[in-house]
Amino acid sequence: MDTLLHFAGLILHIDTFLGQFVQQYGAWVYAVLFLIVFCETGLVILPFLPGDSLLFIGGAFCATGEMNFAALIILLLAASVSGNSLNYAIGRALGPKVFNTHIPYLERFLDRVALQRTHDFYERHGGKTIVLARFIPVIRTFAPFVAGVSCMRAGRFQFFNVSGAALWVLLLVLAGYFFGNIPFIKQYLNVIVLVGIGAAIVPIVLAALWRMWRKKAAAPMVRKPDSR
């Protein structure tokens, strides 16, 4: 419990943590940022690392001269592209093996029809999904893994992986560079981050609930047999 509370505090006060780290360890901060972004995008078990806020705060430090803008952009691009690539590769390696175990008991719980539907979805909308997922915490971590499991074509995945990474990194770092040192934003950064996460996730949840409701409403009602 103490570890979870410490981790939550780190996420909520990442601006303070990063500032202290820059003062104490200097250039080692680049390695820390690379590691955090790489793990958040590359390891499906670590979806709650603070990627968005780190990019924004890193841009703010570039504006004050405490970090180098070009070095930060190159580093974050490398971390986000390689992280997604690892996540995709893990999904691509595990997916076929999991769905082809030939273990009767296990195969009862594996829906190959759902896997095929996921593959078809990524063939049609995988590009938009990979790019847009960059801006949505948690989904950002799972999207490349699912793309790998569903066997999305590697060349297509990498094109949108690089495009999405460039858009994500440049927009957030530039936003931090130009707005991160405004007193109001610095004072309420944690609140802004939480509101931004909520604004990204809530519409997705509502859309999923709406689709579930429509599907349920459209399903034909099963009539009970006449007892006469």
From TrEMBL:
Major localization class: membrane
Segments crossing the lipid bilayer: 27-49, 55-78, 159-179, 191-213
This protein's UniProt keywords: Cell membrane, Membrane, Transmembrane, Transmembrane helix
InterPro entries found in the cross-reference section: DedA, DedA-like, VTT_dom
Domain of life: Bacteria
Residue ranges occupied by any VTT domain in the UniProt entry: 49-177
Intracellular or extracellular location(s): Cell membrane
Membrane topology (UniProt): Multi-pass membrane protein
Cellular component terms per the entry's GO annotation: plasma membrane
Pfam families linked to this entry: VTT_dom (PF09335)
Family: Belongs to the DedA family.
PANTHER family, per database record: INNER MEMBRANE PROTEIN DEDA-RELATED, TRANSMEMBRANE PROTEIN
Name under which the protein is recorded: DedA family protein
Organism, scientific name: Trinickia symbiotica
